[in-house]
Design brief:
The protein is an alpha/beta fold. It has nine helices and seven strands, in the order αβααβαβαβααβαβαβ. The chain has a seven-stranded parallel beta sheet with strand order 1-2-3-4-5-6-7. The longest helix has 17 residues.
Length: about 230
């Protein structure tokens, strides 16, 4: 992350040019803080439906979406339209609200899901596929080479429709690091807007999260999304 101009000048030896701060509680610039460039991807309308007995009817979803938009989130992430016919209709209804926030849907990295999602009118797709050995064996049965081939195909399709696209691994922290970085580097090269890492089973420590994001930052040029 690039430092601010003032901080860079100070670190280059111009110590006398460092401005004084009248407010002792004002934030101090550093190389790790870049909060002003962060974006909030709010997933209540996806994650919020993934617990026992959870159910949002269309009216409730629209109310939540409007409240999130008024709050000022950058993105609102919705359940996959492949989950049910009602989910597809609800996405279409929210896309027609004219919200300031961009509307995303979270789908499997699968061409059928991607085509269905594109037809709903969303602003972008969040693609996900399991990359840990356990998920590759028990979820979809694909090897890393197949995952890469599928990812490139689906990403190129979404981009051809003029939509934003994020590519994320599932179970990132139990995936092989070399496999993971090679995959992210390849999808970054074809122009994804973001890559995502997910602590799917809640096993990562704060230090592990820091280390993976810092390592990934050296591999890709696109934005990095975290789901913890």
């Amino acid at each position: 992350m690039a430092p601010s101009a003032n901080l860079a000048n100070g670190l280059n030896g111009n110590s006398h040019s460092v401005p004084s701060r009248s407010n002792p509680y004002a934030p101090v610039g550093d190389f790790l803080s870049n909060v002003s460039k962060f974006k909030i991807i709010e997933s209540t309308l996806r994650e919020g439906e993934q617990f026992a007995n959870a159910f949002f009817d269309t009216e409730t979803k629209i109310k939540i979406a409007r409240m999130l938009d008024d709050f000022g989130v950058d993105y609102i992430e919705l359940t996959s339209p492949a989950a049910s016919e009602q989910s597809r209709k609800d996405i279409e209804a929210i896309c027609k609200l004219g919200l300031k926030a961009k509307v995303l849907t979270h789908v499997r990295c699968h061409m059928g899901d991607a085509k269905l999602a594109v037809e709903t009118g969303v602003d972008g797709l969040d693609l996900v596929i399991g990359t840990s050995e356990l998920l590759r064996q028990h979820s979809h049965g694909k090897g890393m080479s197949q995952i890469l081939t599928t990812a490139i195909e689906v990403i190129n399709y979404v981009k051809s429709k003029g939509l934003e696209v994020r590519f994320s691994s599932e179970d990132s922290f139990r995936s092989d690091l070399v496999d993971l970085l090679s995959l992210y580097k390849a999808v970054d090269a074809i122009g994804v807007n973001r890559v995502g890492i997910a602590d799917t089973v809640g096993c990562a420590t704060p230090r592990q999260v820091y280390d993976l994001i810092r390592t990934l930052r050296g591999v890709v040029g696109c934005d990095i999304e975290t789901h913890l």
